Amino acid sequence: MTSMISLLVASLAAGWTGIACAGRFNDAGNLAEAVGMLKMTEHVSTVLRDQCVSEFPALASFIDVELRQWRGNESAVLEQVERRWRAFERDGLEGGRILADGVRAVRSDLAFIARMDDDDAGATVEDYCRRSFRDLAAGAWRVRTPTAYRLLEQEMAAAP
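RESULT FIELD:
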């Protein structure tokens, strides 16, 4: 199971940006995949926040508000994801390596965006940063990955 989650999470990280999957988003097929997807989303959002703010300090307040809104809206799901992720790690999942693979994929996508049009690269990356966090706060991941959320919420509802 660990290798399946590792492969899935690494591939989903590239989909976080929407580039690698050409506008299509993978959704979870089971609870382990749902946990991996949401854990990767949470982790990548933190890394992306730091990278965007490093390049565009004026975006810090906007990004922080959007990130807080998303985390607040999804607090119950994110807490469930964290509990499950810790259990997976106790069972041998190499969580740190998996998340690092995801971060590398997202950074690669950002570098690709920056090279797309050298004249407007800064504006393109800045727009990407804005859209990413605006979409996150607006609940875009619930729309893009409804099965992942459904599986996690079903598990939460069934818990004693």
